[in-house]
Amino acid sequence: MNNKGIVFDLDGVLFDTEPLHREAWNNALDEFGIDVTPQELMVWTGVPCQEISVELAKRWKGRYSSGEYYALKEKHFHRIISSRDSLFPGLAVKLEELASNLPLAIATTNTRVNAELLLVKAGIDRYFSTIVCYEDVKNHKPHPEPYLKASGQIQVKGSDCIAIEDSPSGCSSSRAAGMFTLGITSSFSSSDLGEANLIFPSTPEACSWIIKS
Question: Which of 84, 116, 129, 187 could bond 12 through an S-S bridge, CB–CB 3.0 to 4.6 Å?
Answer without folding.
Answer: 187
